[in-house]
Amino acid sequence: MARRQASSIADLIETESIVVTAPIPDYPPMSFTHNGKLHTIVKADGPERIEQEWWLQEGEHRDYYRVEDEAGCRYWIFRSGHYNVETDQWFLHGFFV
Amino acid sequence: MSFSEQAAKLGYSGIAITDRNTFAGIVRAHAAAKRSGIKLIPACRLDLLDGPSLLAYPTSRRAYERLSSLLTVGNFRAEKGECFLYKKDVYEYKEDSKFIVVDAVDKLDEYKDVFGQDLYIAATRRYDGDDAKLLHRISRSGIKMVATNDVHYHHPSRRELQDVVTCVREKCTIYDAGYRLHPNAERYLKSKEEMTRLFMKYPDAITTTKEIAEACQFSLDQLKYVYPKEVTPLGLSPHQYLTDLAWKGAHEMYGEILPDKIKASIKHELSFMEQMDYAQYFLTVYDIVRFARSQGILCQGRGSAAIQRCVIVSVLHP
Question: Which residues contact B213 (CB under 8 A, 6 or more apart)?
Fold first, then answer.
């Protein structure tokens, strides 16, 4: 998954749930809140859409975005599930270091 | 077939499907498109040994003939199933065709010079994280952008089949396939609305598809099968010659008086062949069989039983 970033990313051991404001259907988010702190996104790349490996498991795809906030910090976040499914959820997957 | 049906369902008026270095599948595609009530634009993808691949769209019958000749050049250079083509071959046969360069953005000056206004560049949203950057670079290439979206199947549910076919091609299992598989199911035929949304920043990429489609006025309906002319003895039409051979062979096989049943069946078959204009084909078979016998090569003809037998008997007893 996401081969290009692998070398520059510090993955979180567990993804952390975040709250996101994002235009539908799949444009990069405008802001996200992590641990109570609001980050306004000023730059973004994505989505990189990754489907499940269907021969191993069923499930929703993920849309990954590389985003930069006002402080210049870069984050790797994703939405699990398509925007119009009820179970769609956003997560922080890692930081760019 | 799925493509045409889906394209018709999405309200498209035409579709172009490109196979690699061959027109082999377009007759079936043409028939399927006809059933779905849309237009098939004959086209093909040219994979070259010394340059970026091109999608080629003949705008006229002559252009289609040229592209077919081009493919023949490549086929003659290679073993069966392969086609070796170089840029200069395409330059020689390019007249009246439109070309879309794919999977390349840089170093396209040579193509630009050679193809001029007939060159376009493919724009695709792969959903691989870098779409925005790539489209931006493509838009600055100085070549007219056209949205192709690298469609591989008609519906996202076909991703699994696509993956399996990839494994077959790569001779690997799905567990070992890794990055040889695409990470998502986005290469399906999308609706007009979705395409307009995906290329919102580059509306010309959508309108250009229309420009190419309108320029491509060649349809397979303009072709019909033309059998090569057989050489026949002076003054005889192929059918007369075949008729002579058949009766001659029949007499050699059955003697002076032919059984009624044989007579009837030869007459019946001859009249059918005349109607279908098959004589030249049978004369070709006759030549092949005659040659094979003369060289001691075992061979067997195929086709209409009675005539075949009689004509071949003519070979046996010339």
Answer: B13, B14, B16, B39, B41
Q: How confident is the model at residue B318 (pLDDT cuts 50, 70, 90)?
A: very low
Please write the tens of the pLDDT for every residue from B37-60.
Answer: 999 999 999 999 999 999 999 999
Block residue for tokens 């229309």: B210
Residue B314 pLDDT > 80: no
In contact, B39 and B13? CB cutoff 8 Å: yes
Question: Which of B129, B133, B175 is facing A47, going by the closest CB pair?
Answer: B129
Residue ranges of chain A whose CB lies within 8 Å of a chain B CB: 1-4, 45-51, 54-55, 61, 64, 66
Q: What is the pTM of this model?
A: 0.81
- Interface confidence, given as ipTM, is 0.87
Distance from CA of B139 to the nearest CA of A (A): 18
From the list B128, B159, B179, the residue facing A48 with the nearest CB is B128
Whole-number Å distance between alpha carbons of B311 and B318: 10
Q: Which chain B residue's Cα is nearest to A76?
A: B129
Contacts of A8 (CB under 8 A, 6+ apart): A96, A97
Chain A: nearest CA to B41, how far in angstroms?
31
What 3-state class would DSSP assign to B33? Answer: helix
What is the model's pLDDT at position B296? Answer: 85
Task: Identify which of A32-41, B245-254, B285-294 has the greatest average pLDDT.
Answer: A32-41
Count chain A–chain B contacts defined by CB atoms under 8 A: 37
CA distance B303 to A19: 73
Q: For the CA atoms of chain B, what is the radius of gyration?
A: 26
- Tokens linked to B61: 């019958």
